[in-house]
Amino acid sequence: MTVVAIIAGTMLILAAALTCYRILAGPNSLDRLVAIDTAMAVAMCGLAVWAAASKDTTVVPAIVALSLVGFLGSASVARFRVGDDQ
Question: In the chain, fewer beta carbons within 10 Å around the N or the C end?
Fold first, then answer.
């Protein structure tokens, strides 16, 4: 299980680095919005890997809360987004 957790953690770190690049270099605000949503998903996956590796289920409510906040934030920004050219 430790090897799987290390491989998953390494892949999540790589995904977080690529997501940070997209947040900083995104050509428009919609690309940055998708990157922030992806960063939220990577954070949730990181918490899930940590919970599985440590056999500690106390972070499950935090994962659920992050998923709700991520969904509501993405839905609200996408609903009220104004075009970049205006």
Answer: C
Confidence check: pLDDT of 86 > 60: no
Assess contact for 29 and 81: CB atoms under 8 A: yes
pTM of the full predicted structure? 0.82
Q: How far is residue 33's CA from residue 51's CA, in Å, rounded to a whole number?
A: 27
Distances (CA, A) of 1 to 49, 53, 63: 10, 7, 21
Alpha carbon distance 47, 44 (integer Å): 5
Segment 18-54, tens digit of pLDDT: 999 999 997 887 888 889 999 999 999 999 999 999 9
Q: Are 1 and 53 in contact (CB under 8 A)?
A: yes
